[in-house]
Amino acid sequence: MQPVMTLEPMRAEHLAFVFRCLGELRGEAQFSLGDWTEYVRENNLIGHPQTAIWIGTVSGAPVGMLVGNRFAIPQYLGFGWSLDGVVVPPDS
Question: From the CA atom positions of the chain, what is the Rg in Å?
Fold first, then answer.
């Protein structure tokens, strides 16, 4: 039986993993893990209904990250999501 991957919104315990994934996505960071953690907390990105970072886990361990962008669709009085990035670190 193959392992099953699940997706879940980013939580506080994922911040270091997401920081590492962001490094894979954009190269060398212009900020530290501490700066990233502070940014997430100051902007209430954990648990926010518009949070656009999801973590792929296998057996509870993070293995990848999806980054999305929520946008308004006024003609339908709704919202949509675009997928902006998928990152699976080489050591996952």
Answer: 14
- Listing DSSP states for 58-78 in one string gives ETTEEEEEEEEEEEEEGGGTE
How many Å apart are CA 11 and CA 18, to the nearest integer?
10
For every residue of 1-54, DSSP letters joined together read -PPPEEEEE--GGGHHHHHHHHHHHHSS-SS-HHHHHHHHHHTT-SS-TT--EE
Q: What is the mean pLDDT of residues 46-74?
A: 87
Q: Residues 70-92: pLDDT tens digits?
A: 888 988 888 888 888 788 887 76
If phi over 0 gives left and psi between -120 and 50 gives alpha, with beta otherwise, what is residue 24?
alpha
For the chain, the average pLDDT equals: 87
Residue pair 10/46 in contact by the 8 Å Cβ criterion: yes
Helix axes 33-42, 15-26, angle to 10 degrees: 110
